[in-house]
């Protein structure tokens, strides 16, 4: 299945990223990272590699948000790109925003 992506993340993705990052680090650091995410160029990665790097489990299709994203994909609508941050202190990839989209994409095609 052909996954279509927007050219850049939607504006509402950044406050969502800041909110999540603020839970796992102090808020000033989360703001700095979120501001940097607005500036970076988009890069492509294979969905299964993102899962491996972040260590998160995949959510099932019964998850309401994953289901919504699967419907968008089936309709041929473009998805907002994921916001990813590599925490160099512990070598982990952090999905700042887009975890549900990643799960939906993986369900459709593990190598979009």
What does this structure look like?
The protein is mainly alpha-helical and 112 residues long. It has one domain. The protein has 5 helices and 2 strands. The chain has a two-stranded antiparallel sheet. The radius of gyration is 14 Å and the shape is globular. The chain starts with 12 loop residues before the first helix and ends with a helix.
Write the layout of secondary structure elements.
Elements: H1 13-24, H2 27-37, H3 47-54, H4 64-74, E1 83-87, E2 92-97, H5 99-108
Antiparallel strand pairs: 1-2
Helix pairs in contact: 1-2, 3-5, 4-5
Along the chain, the helix and strand elements come as HHHHEEH
Profile the largest sheet: 2 strands, antiparallel
Termini separation comes to 8 Å
Number of discrete domains: 1
Number of H- or I-type helical stretches: 5
Compute the number of strand runs.
2
Which of globular, elongated, flat, extended, rod-shaped describes the shape? globular
Computed over alpha carbons, the radius of gyration is: 14 Å
